[in-house]
Amino acid sequence: MTIVENEDPSTVAARAVERLRLAEARLARRRQTDCGPSENARAAMRLILERADEGLTVTPTEIAQALGVSTASVTGMLDRLHAGGLIGFIANPDDRRSKFVIPFDRSTDADAIDPVTARIREYALSLPADAAGHIATFLDQVREVVDAECG
Questions:
Q1: Which residues contact 116 (CB under 8 A, 6 or more apart)?
Q2: Structural domain boundaries in the chain
Q3: For 3-145, where are the E strands, in sequence order?
Q4: In what residue span(s) does the HTH marR-type domain sit (predicted)?
Q5: What is the C-alpha separation between 147 and 100, in angstroms, rounded?
Q6: Tens digit of each residue's pLDDT (9 = 90 or more) over 109-148
Q7: N or C: which end of the chain has fewer CB within 10 A?
Q8: CATH class of the domain at 38-107
């Protein structure tokens, strides 16, 4: 990777984001075949664990909505997570047609489910406070562009 020193900072930043997007795409492809649970399964586990930490429950429908996928794909994913011993189901006392998804082993570390996120958090801790805010704003704007594409 060669960075031309004469480039303006905005071009350098835009190219860095493009390299990040390409790396994320490569990671997603690797995770589909070689690397354990899919991105959606990891995101679902993070949501389930976060809700449990907050003393809240989550339904399969809420997981589907949060991930932006169909309830059918969430059902299959939850079945695999259940078979792997990561989650369980309990009946919703207010709606017998509905169930809540709960983590089996609450000692599971969310960072162990997604070590990439844990490493990113480590790097973020070393950012100067003024830079961290600017970077977060910039990345949120990039995310908005990505989320708006084909949407």
A1: 27
A2: 8-36, 38-107, 114-144
A3: 87-91, 99-103
A4: 31-131
A5: 28
A6: 666 666 777 888 889 999 998 899 999 999 999 988 888 8
A7: N
A8: mainly alpha
